[in-house]
Give the backbone structure.
Amino acid sequence: MTLAIRVIPCLDVDAGRVVKGVNFQNLRDAGDPVELARRYDAEGADELTFLDVTASSGDRETTYEVVRRTAEQVFIPLTVGGGVRTPDDVDRLLRAGADKVGVNTAAIARPELIAEIARRFGRQVLVLSADVRRTADGESTPSGFEVTTHGGRRGTGIDAVEWARRTAELGAGEILLNSMDADGTKAGFDLELTRAVRAVVDIPLIASGGAGKVGHFPPAVAAGADAVLAASVFHFGEFTVGDVKDELRAAGHPVR
Amino acid sequence: MQPRVIIFDYGSGNLRSAQRAVERTGAEVTVTGDPRAALEADGLLVPGVGAFEACMTGLRAAGGDRVIGRRLAGGRPVLGICVGMQVLFERGVEHDVSTEGCGEWPGTVERLRAPIVPHMGWNTLDVPEGSRLFAGIEPDERFYFVHSYGVRRWELHPTSGHIAPPLVTWSTHGEPFVAAVENGPLWATQFHPEKSGDAGARLLANWVATL
């Protein structure tokens, strides 16, 4: 009996619609997150992640409605991140039907938020999401990686590996490690980053950013990822969740 | 007649998925913290996420521990899920602090000893022969777990020939732990059937069929 490596499609949701584009045939409404969630569930996704990129807080209610509708139709775990600033935000998302909640920028500004959420809801609900890039010469952190905000545009000077260690200690249940350098390159996951964080945390680790072909996934697992996350390669039908699992299985990793 | 199922709401997390998953079996489902309704329903589902101590405090404040005890005394089905299973045991130990549970089963809920905790994701099970909970479910089927604590020793071994022995299902994360129990009217799962796709739906239907 061994825990399966999880394969997680991620959907960016803006005011209730999937953005960044999807390209599926036979899909009635490619922009509907609920319909996409159902499709990925049918393909064997182990979990789903919604990243709420809604700019205006006035549209936040739409996100709750999407979560509600998804939870009614899809019976696998759902993580929702984006714009979570307080334990009450977490409460609203859980009540709408989210199983886990992703926290990113707000925890950088105020790390105690992690402990507050863990204390109130249990650490298993809290996915600490970190957007990480390699530091430039002259601005180097000890590990050579730093945490960024604003979608990777702004460096914080916070050492990413130390941040991961600290958030795990504060009560994060899991770390979603997104490489901003690899993101969008389709050149593979940042294995060095994955290994560095794996070495300092004993909570589950999700590798994200850089997936371009199925062959990219087994090395991320070998580097220490418990789960792998990707977005556009699934949305554009370059390969399916099932294809990734076949590749992982062939490499000797347990999958569902 | 559709069986009537109450999902006991004592302030614990995402109940919507559980409600929809049980509704899919054809049962009539109500989410409520009303102890009388919980006592009278055909089946009572006790959910639970987060800390043992917080769940137990919430359950007691809502009168849930007494409702569970009275239902079981009358032979009426109860299904505990995740921490809703853990609170059925004698005690939970978190950060060296011991909290009294419902005490329906002897045993202690303690931190899992594994390299990576929480145990998060889809794992396989070792299901005993004769299980009704897992009837019709393939032996290699996986179920969704998310927990840091578990029961590492099953301590109830009735010697009377008149009592059917409890059926205990195990899983392994670092070491073996109790993944599910079928014991008279009291059944429970450490994993989340409501999050375990089609296999979880089948399991919930197996429970509802007993109501």
User: Anything to note?
Assistant: Chain B has six helices and 13 strands. The two ends of chain B are 11 Å apart (CA to CA).
